[in-house]
Known about the structure:
Blueprint: H1 2-58, H2 62-68, H3 78-83, E1 87-88, E2 95-96, H4 99-130, H5 133-147, H6 151-175, E3 185-186, E4 193-195, E5 198-202, E6 205-209, H7 211-214, E7 216-218, H8 223-247, H9 251-259, H10 264-275, H11 277-293, H12 296-302, H13 319-327, H14 336-366
Antiparallel strand pairs: 1-2, 3-4, 4-7, 5-6
Helix pairs in contact: 1-14, 4-8, 4-11, 5-8, 6-8, 6-12, 8-11, 8-12, 9-10, 11-14, 13-14
Amino acid sequence: MSTETQSESGISGDDGLESAHEANRRIRRLLFGCAAVTVATTVAIFLVLFDNAASYFFGARVSEILFAGDAFERTVTFIEFFTGTRWAPDHSTPAHGVLPIVWGTLAITIGAGLVSIPIGTATALYLSEYASTETRNRLKPILEVLAGIPTIVYGYFAVSFLTPVVVDGIARHLVDPVGRGVHAVGTALPGSVEIRNAEVHFGDAVVAAGESMIGITVGRYSMLGGILVVGVMTIPMVSSISEDAMQAVPDELRNGAYALGATKYQVSTRIVLPAAVSGIFASYILALSRAIGETMAVTLGAGFNANLTANPFAEIMTMTAYLVSMARGTSAVGTVEYQSLFAVGLLLFLMTLTMNLLNDRLKQRFQEVYR
């Protein structure tokens, strides 16, 4: 009887083990399918963009050339596309130089990084090293709520507050830093300031400044407005990810520094920041990638004018803003101006992909492993 019991027990155990292995195989196939869908979606997006962008440059899609035998003719040259300084593919006198909208995208991205990176890093350092547990538990959810606000809300925040109040205030201060002596201030549009031919007094000196020197016009949209709204929008991303990276630094490193007589500031800047640099850099790259691909907030903040300028008070256009404006336009499908959507989209895709690859490279380069 004992032999039969042991035999039945062994059979039951083998069946249970086999069932467990089968369940693991099913879960593994399911997870692999999810990963495959992600990769396939990315590849499909690239192929669609590449196929339609070819029609913009060569007059026919790659699929049409390969499978339908269509001949291609050069419609837009790469030299014109990458070096031209005027972008107006849907104009009566079309121009296909993408530099103005690339410059607008890079200006917004770099400017937003100059706003979000120092503020976000300082916020993360405070939450990780200086704030009490109660304060951290209260402030961290607020930052996460800010990260979840729809970008269209940030865009209207730029239109209703940042540009008419902050940007206009900066413009006024630049023209009249001491608050007196400006004799010509006119209002061009609601929420705008136009300053021309100002005469500024500094003590007994009188400096007549003409329009060419200090003329500043702030309209409804401006580069600085786009920079500020995207910078504010990406602060939660930098602070949240950086704070998580700092919290992952072992307390043994902090305690060792304190045992050697280091102050809180020294521990924060010389121990915690270098040890968490991998995660901090990752937050920077992710924030810049978010700024590159931002659409509604930067469109409402910076505007729709493809302008190659370094004037922070001028209206500019980013690549995403062009995609929005062209998608809501009246260009016929298949025309050169319509296919320009895919050329700009492909370039934006490659820029974002480069940022993500750089993020992975930096994480591997500076990653710290603690045991």
